[in-house]
Amino acid sequence: MDQLRTLWEDDPTTVLASAAALGVGLVASLVLFSRKKAAGPKDGELLPGEERDVVYFYTFDRWAYGANASSPCCKLETYLRLAKVNHKVVTTLTPHPRTKKTPYIRYNGHSVPDSNLIIDFLVKTAGAKDLDAHLSKQEKATLLAVRIMAEESLYFEVMHDRWMENTDKFVEAVHNEKAPPLVVLRFVFKYLIAPNIAKALNGQGTGRFTVEEIHERSAAEIDAFANILGEKDYFGGSKPSVADTAVFAILSGCLYNPWSAQRPMIEKYSNLVKFCERIKTEVYPDWDDISTGFSARK
């Protein structure tokens, strides 16, 4: 320290230049390291343990009221099961490196994010079943609107219900024996995650409305779903479509959740209840088994 002080007094320019060079070197090293780490395996390169022609489905863990609290994760799993795609579930809290979202897949060394992009990729690249193949152009257009209403509107209203109106209950619904103690998870959800969710909801728009106004919007959209479905088995007619997986993911997450604000809205329509039961029975024979072991069910 004394030598450094002497050098500073005799030649401060040299000290500053050396410090700057050291700082630049450290920053450059960190940047190169982070880029190398973020880059991961090359496109088309299998990770250790991966098999060819197997879809590795990266998703959140289960929750107390069905397949997944995340409707995009539930939607994609419903598609994979309906289309009988050879897949393996990989539970993760690490989002996709590019989109920072979950779910995503890896297939033959290719990493693909977003449930809609994934389904398109699997149909075009992996030869997976196209659930929309039986639809006319007009039907595809209608069901695109149905899917968007589920994923871009009702989705955020349900998010508001869970994160803003019923945070404690939501924590219990996703807490299991593998998670940190409930008191710790409750603190993380309420004070670390929920504020960011509130900002996101405000930016998206839903968070700027009152609870009553949000519930009115949900009721109107659920009524629209019921009227579009009518007496059909599925929104796509006699066969399920991609839109059916999206609507099921949203509605089932509310219908089988005892404290959901949207649950009584759905229960008003027997066709929506039967729709959810139909897919649950056909696609998820293990429904009751996969949703056990959570604090909310004890």
Give a structural overview.
With 298 residues, the chain is an alpha+beta fold. The protein has 2 domains: 55-126, Glutaredoxin, CATH 3.40.30; 137-292, Glutathione S-transferase Yfyf (Class Pi), Chain A, domain 2 (Up-down Bundle). 59% of the residues lie in helices and 6% in strands. The protein has 12 helices and 4 strands; from the N terminus they run ααβαβββααααααααα. The chain has helices at residues 2-10, 12-39, 71-82, 115-125, 137-165, 167-174, 182-204, 211-229, 242-255, 263-267, 270-283, 287-290; strands spanning 55-59, 87-91, 104-107, 110-113. A 4-stranded mixed beta sheet has the order 2-1-3-4, covered by helices on one side. β3 (104-107) and β4 form a beta hairpin. α5 (137-165) crosses α7 (182-204). Mean pLDDT is 90; it is low at 1-39.
What tags apply to this protein structure?
alpha+beta, 298 residues, 2 domains, Glutathione S-transferase Yfyf (Class Pi), Chain A, domain 2, 4-stranded mixed sheet, Glutathione-S-Trfase_C_sf, disordered N terminus, Glutaredoxin
